[in-house]
Amino acid sequence: MSAAFQVFQTTPWLLITAAVLFGLAVGSFLNVVIHRLPRMLERQWRAECAELTGVAAAPAETFNLVTPRSSCPHCGHRISALENVPIVSYLALGGKCSACKARISPRYPLVEALTGALSGYIAWRFGLSLAAFGALIFAWAMIALAFIDLDASYLPDNITLPLLWIGLLFNLGTTFTDIQSAVIGAAAGYLALWAVFWAYKLATDKEGMGYGDFKLLAAIGAWLGWKMLPLVILLSSFVGAAIGIGLIVFARHGRNVPIPFGPYLALAGLVALFFGEPITRHYLAFF
User: Fold this and answer.
1) Which of 95, 123, 226, 284 is the most buried (most CB within 10 A)?
2) Taken in order 17, 21, 24, 29, is the CA torsion positive or negative?
3) Over the range 101-128, which residues count as b (16 or more CB within 10 Å of their CB) and which as e?
4) pLDDT at residue number 49
5) Cis omega (within 30 of 0) on the bond before 68?
6) Which of 132, 154, 114, 130 is nearest to 26 (CA)?
7) DSSP assigned state of 46
8) How far from chain centre, in Å, is Cα 40?
9) Residue 56: what pLDDT?
């Protein structure tokens, strides 16, 4: 173990290559999480509702992150190990199922490539360190949450709440910020969007965002500290507003159709992780 550690320390390109390859594998798993976790939660909620109402729930087959094996949603073809190699399999199959030739969504290789690229960048940026390990956890969670919110329009507590507590634990050793800033960041992150939510609801009698957004910003505050929250809020709001206007104008997206805010928070959180300090420093110097 110590020999491998020394090799990675003295050979940065090897560490980056290993991080990219491992990130591609993690990206493949994240695709499973993104697809299955919302369905797992919906099954759980239906079972809980049936229990509360006293109605016997119909028996369901085991469905989790491991079982059953991945299959084509069109023909049910079980995906083999060779057909599940990140990116390579997609290119070799021409983006189609090997059995029925139905089109495979390009989002699968996109998630894998994004995870691999971010993992390699983190290895290059932080080296072999505790900060790199924490940044990988943070980045992988942001990717999963962003795509789950795009699909299901909610951010599951199964990811946001553990992410918050893990961030506080990492900052016990001031990995990204001191623990006082992390605790304040967690509280301020939640309360900031909570206040916006209730102000908007009282003014319009409509809900402008979900509680998952509060928890995600609280998690980001726990990882990066309260000083990064203004940047995260401003950047996510700006990007969200620009994309929202673009969807309404060019894609004829209905004004009353909600647009998930989680992906913009996740993107802003990653920007703050990598570039938050220089951006904040230049911003303050400008004024």
Assistant:
1) 123
2) negative
3) eeebeeebbebbbbbbebbbbbbeebeb
4) 85
5) yes
6) 114
7) H
8) 17
9) 67
Q: Phi, psi at residue 48, to the nearest 5°?
A: -65, -40
Q: What are phi and psi of 32, to 5 degrees?
A: -65, -45
Match 């028996």 to its residue by tokens.
59
In this prediction, the residues of the chain whose per-residue pLDDT falls under 50 are none
0.90 cut: is pTM over it? yes
What's the helix, strand, coil split of the chain in %, to 5? 75, 0, 25
Q: What are phi and psi of 254, to 5 degrees?
A: -60, 140
Q: What are the b/e assignments for 221-244, b being 16+ CB within 10 Å?
A: bbbbbbbbbebbbebbeebbeeeb
**Phi and psi of 78, rounded to 5°?**
-70, 130
Rounded to an integer, what distance in angstroms lies between the CA atom of residue 97 and that of residue 74?
9
Give the chain's count of helices (H) and strands (E). 10, 0
**pLDDT at residue 139 in the model:** 98
Alpha helix locations (H) across 54-178?
88-92, 107-126, 130-152, 157-170
CB 144 within 8 A of CB 33: yes
Residue with tokens 């029925």, as numbered in its chain: 100
Q: Which residues pair with 96 in a beta bridge?
A: 103
Can you say whether the dihedral through the CA atoms of 206, 211, 214, 216 is positive or negative? negative
- Residue 142 CB neighbour total at 10 angstroms: 25
Total Cβ atoms within 10 A of residue 9: 13
